[in-house]
Amino acid sequence: MAEATGTSILELKAVTKKFGPVEVIRGIDLDVRQGEFIVFVGPSGCGKSTLLRIIAGLEDASAGEVWIAGQEVSSTPPANRGIAMVFQTYALYPHLSVRDNMRLGLKQAGTPAAEIDRRVEVASTMLSLDPYLKRFPAELSGGQRQRVAIGRAVVREPTLFLFDEPLSNLDAGLRVNTRLEIAQLHRRLNATMIYVTHDQVEAMTLADRIVVLSAGRIEQVGAPMELYNNPANEFVAGFIGSPK
Ligand code: ADP
Ligand code: MG
């Protein structure tokens, strides 16, 4: 695991989200430090994706504040938040080659061509994508596509990576491999990552700290073994799989 330092990368302060009258995020406070691997777990519909989308700026919070690297970001557009997000569905551009999928975001950000090439080379080596750079998404397996999506995040050199159930569309074997690759990436880049899953094994193996969510609230935050040995309530115990 990467070494977490004192620098605050993300602060959520009383973040709330309503869709119409329905409050789906209910006063979330959280502080994430440089180098941490944070996993959000909780059942389907508890608000994991909504919370990630609020951090990324794809949804506005109804109340509360989001701070990224010491800045309150309510008026910062998603592209300027220093965040890269990886989705369950990969979200690759079908008409672009692997190389161009990885280049596009950097081009749009005005990164010089030589710097784009350097970053794509580093990321594709790191993710074993070199043989596929000229191929198109339709010519790749699901695992390869997800590696491209991860590569596209890596080249942006984000302050914070967000992963929304990145392994859900992969079969069991690939899920393990891709999980190990993400863990390795975290170490090598000393990156800060927030990773959403409803899978306890993923949470236990990847996290420095697990955030257990239920119905838009945090039930407990702690290191995997802390939650396992000392769950705050029945819900956490049931989720992490240790009898209370
Ligand atoms: P999770 O990712 O944990 O499965 P979500 O964040 O997707 O949960 O959803 C949390 C709750 O918010 C769910 O009840 C969902 O139906 C609701 N929700 C999510 N997005 C919207 C939306 N755009 N409009 C209305 N309700 C939404
Ligand atoms: Mg979700």
TrEMBL record:
It comes from Consotaella salsifontis. One of its GO terms (cellular component) is ATP-binding cassette (ABC) transporter complex, substrate-binding subunit-containing. It is found in: Cell inner membrane. The keyword Thylakoid does not apply. The lineage of its organism: Bacteria, Pseudomonadati, Pseudomonadota, Alphaproteobacteria, Hyphomicrobiales. Keywords: ATP-binding, Nucleotide-binding, Transport. Its main location: membrane. Residues 10-240 form the ABC transporter domain. This is Carbohydrate ABC transporter ATP-binding protein, CUT1 family. It is a peripheral membrane protein. Belongs to the ABC transporter superfamily. GO terms for molecular function: ABC-type maltose transporter activity; ATP binding; ATP hydrolysis activity.
